[in-house]
From TrEMBL:
Reactions listed under catalytic activity: L-homoserine + acetyl-CoA = O-acetyl-L-homoserine + CoA
Record-annotated active site: S149 (nucleophile), D286, H315
Family: Belongs to the AB hydrolase superfamily. MetX family.
GO terms under cellular component: cytoplasm
HAMAP family the record matches: MetX_acyltransf
GO molecular function per UniProt: homoserine O-acetyltransferase activity
PANTHER family documented for this protein: HOMOSERINE O-ACETYLTRANSFERASE (PTHR32268:SF11)
Annotated residues for binding of substrate: R206, D316
Gene of this entry: metXA
Descriptive protein name: Homoserine O-acetyltransferase
EC number: 2.3.1.31
SUPFAM superfamilies (alphabetical): alpha/beta-Hydrolases (SSF53474)
Function of the molecule: Transfers an acetyl group from acetyl-CoA to L-homoserine, forming acetyl-L-homoserine.
Amino acid sequence: MTVSTRPAPAFVPSPAPVAEAPRRRNALLFRREPLLLDCGQPVNNVRVAYHTYGEAREEATLVLHALTGTSAVHEWWPDFLGEGRPLDPARDYVVCANVLGGCAGTSGPSELPQIAGQDAPLSLRDMARVGRALLEHLGVRRVRVVGASMGGMLAYAWLLECPDLVERAVIVGAPARHSPWAIGLNTAARSAIRAAPGGEGLKVARQIAMLSYRSPESLALTQAGQRRPGVPAVTSYLEYQGEKLQARFCERSYVALTGAMDAFSPSDAELRAVGVPVLVVGITSDVLYPAAEVRACADQLPRATYWELDSPHGHDAFLMDPQELPERVGAFLRG
Ligand SMILES: CC(=O)SCCNC(=O)CCNC(=O)[C@H](O)C(C)(C)COP(=O)(O)OP(=O)(O)OC[C@H]1O[C@@H](n2cnc3c(N)ncnc32)[C@H](O)[C@@H]1OP(=O)(O)O
Ligand SMILES: N[C@@H](CCO)C(=O)O
């Protein structure tokens, strides 16, 4: 593994946003042959919601979103997408799809099989196979993959499941497998959902998760003191974040996607067989996926470059405080 210590190349982002309002589209896939899920269940007619940016080409950059993300990259990663940025629609064909089992347009648990009255478990490899079908639908033959958080774990799944398609990958703030700590946090979140279905549990799940997406230092910087008399700022912050997620996300998707992440467990041999260059980025204050853990996974990849984003803001620093991350990613993608 190479550890990158070089200063990033000069990069001057344009202040201009993406020019046209991008439109979400749907593709109906697996109409004839079903998708065979890893759990053994077949699924026909999988709807995939996706955004594209730039002119259609046979080579694309595929962006993989995080747990509660959507295909609308322009909404959640503006530092990365746009003129002069690492994903530049004037130069690149950028594709992002909502994952199988999500709740932002792609077929979710209510449209997928059940086993013994429970939603069938989904895997990250199932999601990669659906992504491959979308690329075929779009006429894309080769991709550079960029994913953060759950999207980073999904990038590992792409490397293993579709090695013929991926020419390089960027993995930000993600391990190849969940630690007991990460599974424990998700277990507590799912327990909250099961204990209080209908929305209250999802709010608690988000509060638990938010603590793992920030850091002690970040909360000390942003949520010290009281918001209103007698109410610690962090308490009202977590309550508000719980309300916000409950308004925009689905608890069955939350259970399905966290379950898929927890179950993903590629072998060391699979990781050692990855043949393409991969940029792996750890975040110094990430308490969910500590940088050492992210780096240890990079160590398994024969052609990995590792770099660390130095931020006090924890796991979500890739969204809140990316600093020179866009330049690093842009330079790596350009090869
Ligand atoms: C790769 C991917 O796909 S990532 C997917 C992207 N995910 C999303 O876009 C959805 C998830 N969003 C997030 O995780 C966050 O919004 C982030 C990381 C993007 C930004 O985090 P932050 O800068 O801390 O902003 P965050 O949204 O957490 O908090 C700010 C909000 O909390 C409110 N707030 C802040 N402090 C408090 C407080 N003490 N009490 C109550 N409310 C508070 C603010 O008023 C603001 O409200 P608004 O959202 O209505 O404007
Ligand atoms: N905060 C982001 C990243 C979590 O991994 C999300 O809600 O999807």
